């Protein structure tokens, strides 16, 4: 009992002393005299950058957009690294990942925006919109009762409201032949194909166009190869022009189908990543047979891995122009804010031992200007103008000299076709005059195109007559394109070819487009001649 009395007397004194000490310490804390918010910083657990960010957040005189400030700080740090180490903000991460994963969840239409109106220019065959009855030529007026037409709509805004989880429903109000039509669409998984086209150039020569190396590329490639083999393919042309790369694994698996034995495809090595060899692991589908790879200045990364392995083992002929020159490997790290850091962790080296990474010591601006400098230097037009940044020669399997340090130099050089981008043509591309005219004409003449069953039928039988060409010129003139009355014969040929290819694209997407465009493509024509020379 006496102990309880002592505790009852002692506790109030202890609490009073603790309160007094707290008030004293609080008065001595930074900011206590100025009404500021005090904060305890555990300096041992945070780096200087985070320490500065925390101080700015709590103490700075004005309110700041801290997300923007943080992104600028990260971007500032990354400018001191290589040009391919990048920060991906949360707002962009989904789109970036979808592109490489090879699919997204949505309604399955292709659209353009003109006069503040969303026009459906293509409906994915077998997709959710086709099942719901959406038609090419429909104009999207409302999405879930929210007006989108005439409401400063942008591609980003319309994608945001149309996309959603697989199985979810969205009501879309369309304007069709001057009548409003409500369509209920159940969203699904929409593929983002990385193989744009695969067809027979000749009875024996197959063609495969790879636009990127995504998670689905290898499966798509094998499907394309099986189809071409059934059609009689004995020789092959693979087109990786303007292919920016993608997953390393996708490139090595495609290369494995073209190389025999256990040949080295590439190896990677970095400060924290010991050397890793990537070799052929299985019998390939096309280890024999004449092969050509088409490249240009837009062929980068995984595209260069494929082209480099084929060149270093003398497996096929590289035709075109020097590739981009990216020999760095990135790993993507997810961040707590929902963004990601894509950080360079290693370099890759192709079988001859060469790195094809071009220099970046002069900063990102100089690095970004490299392609334009090549053009200005004449490299796009003349093979003798190619400057090798690494003068140390490497040797292919057959002892041929090859060079690194700036891309893959082709075995057969093909100059840039300036006729396709001269005169009034750049203005027609910039204003999307081709696309707008094709959408308008095609949607008004749907029945004229129904008789064509395949891209090959269309390529051989469709003739773009002068009435359509003249209608295009009238349309272009109304679109403020100057010089329509001074079109040269070469420009007229290019315009007619592109119009025909874009009509084919309306019917069969990229498969139709490339089948028409390749018919007059000098690089494709040269590739056919080269593979036909070889008898296997």
UniProtKB/TrEMBL annotation:
It comes from the Bacteria. It holds the Pfam family PDZ_2. Residues 93-163 form the PDZ domain. The keyword Cytoplasm does not apply. The keyword Cell cycle does not apply. InterPro entries: ClpP/crotonase-like_dom_sf, PDZ, PDZ_sf, Peptidase_S41A, Tail-specific_protease. Keywords: Hydrolase, Protease, Serine protease. Belongs to the peptidase S41A family. This is S41 family peptidase. The lineage of its organism: Bacteria, Pseudomonadati, Bacteroidota, Chitinophagia, Chitinophagales.
